[in-house]
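Cont'd.
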Amino acid sequence: MTSREKTGIMKNLAPLLALLLTVGLLPRSANAQEQRGYIDLSQVEAWFDDEPAIEVNIRGALLNLVAEASKYEDPDLADMLRQLKVIQVRGFDLSRADDTLLSQSTELGRQLEADGWETVVRVRDDGEHVQMYLLATGESIDGMVVLATDEFEDEAIFVNIVGEIRPDQIGRIGRKFNLGVLESN
Amino acid sequence: MIRFRLPALSLILIGLLCSGCIYSREIQHTRKEIARANPDIHIDQQISANLGPFSLRLAGWITSLVDDEDALRASRYLRDIRRVKVGVFDVRGGDGGLNGVTEMRRFQRRGWELAAKVRDDDESVWLYYRERDGSVRDLYAIVYSEDELVIARLSGRLTHLMEAAMRDYAESGGLDLLSDWE
């Protein structure tokens, strides 16, 4: 192949390469981390020396699978699950946490409030602390965060649900995923 | 006669091993990685199975011939499963915990997402998944207890499979289908 032929091929390929590059550089559809209502739970993980005893990350196709699996048993819940984007849970053994956990949790709550989240539940009972935050746009809720510690059970649970949430269905999500902290809602 | 049978049987056995019907390199690789990260634990082979599309299609065809409602359902489910790999291992030693699973590079490198992890005093479970075209196509489970390690991978149209199973479950009016598995 002569150098002139090679140059010709390159000229023909140039528009295709330019197109591929442009497509590659175009912003992709928003991933889970960019969704409104998502919080990075790795900041919570940093409060503990040990890795979480419970970790749940349900999103995308897996959330779709759970919705499909629920539609015969509980169609309303399935409809709601289809509106969700992410469910993430972290559970830790409280006996291995230090004394600063409560202040860190309170500080995270303050950060959330500063970012426009609304405090809807704050319970400080003997040995039990629960904070629930919602992020709303007009009438719809885009995200929910629950920070809960129970000294009697020696556990701390952190939940973040992203997507269109119907408040009356929060308890059902709790039952579906065995999240005691949400079941009473 | 025996002189001819022995090489033939050996060849069949080697053929089965090479085709992956018994031995799964992937499961063994995961076992080795776990063993490397947990040198105080002895992990010995107990059971291993690796069923590919051909074996599963054959199993689906055989179950479809059985005149039983549950067998017919199983045959339908098998159509959605493309591959099953399972390894069950005896475990000795250790303090009940298993390290290094979430750090395994093979999961990160090959696009597996951690769906759930539960670490209890006497049992730990890791469940990974992979999706394609908006559907769950692969599940990978590692279950570790005091005396047993189970590594399993299930591939296929799993969203479709789950939907079919739950539809049958709802239509059968309860846990009839699942009670036999317990």
